[in-house]
Design goal:
Low-confidence stretches: none
Shape: globular
Helix content: 25-40%
Radius of gyration: 21 Å
Largest sheet: 7 strands, parallel
Oligomer: single chain
Length: about 260
Amino acid sequence: MRIVFVALANAPSLQRYAAYTANELSARHEVHVVTTRFADPSLLAPGVHHHPLGVTRTPRLEAQTGNLFALGAIVRLLGRLKPDVIHYTCAHPWNLVLARLSRARHVFTIHDVIPHPNEPVTRVVAWYNRAVFGGLAHHVVLHGEAHLTVLREQGYDLSRFSYVPLGEVLPPSRQEPLPQAKRVLFIGRIVPYKGLEVLLRAAPLVVRDHPDAVFVIAGGGDLSPYRPLFGDLPLEFHNRFIPEAEMAGYFYNARLVVL
């Protein structure tokens, strides 16, 4: 079987997801992966064919998201390959176009059945999901059992949906003692749905029983809405995008990670 993975969003986690899935299937099938030019090709196994045709530089919508030259290159590639299956591993507007132009079987991974609230792309993701769920996809892969409940309540036929537990990626082996400092880590984008205000409201209760606790807030975004909750809490800020190369250090130095 010839399978093409389309992974046009340039988030490291999403590129890793596509690469690891493609690597596993390459032992039994002919596998191609279409990514942006900025994806890391070292993630792919030797037997996977890599096509860096997209031009999206960031995980978010940007001007280059609508690059018609990149879309044309992908359409021509699919025309040459004539794949049996195309698996779209992350949301991107071009996926909807490609799925209508190709006669292959179309599989979509949907990571957020309910779009993140109060974000600039919330309505776009909702529109994308409706198109996929409404019949564009031959099959949809989900990574949360609760997603099936949501879709059942919305009246969808669940025969086209599969819940697949998300695998784990193990970090490099490091034998380090548990940090003595009681560092509580919140890491990720500072956006409303992440719930940073919940942590900040709970922090005084933690400090009451653990006065040596320190709360580490690491990630890019606007902290100004949360400033009234800072008070005299023991907070440590790293208010910037955290590259993947630095993430392991944050996790190894934390006694507790909060989500």
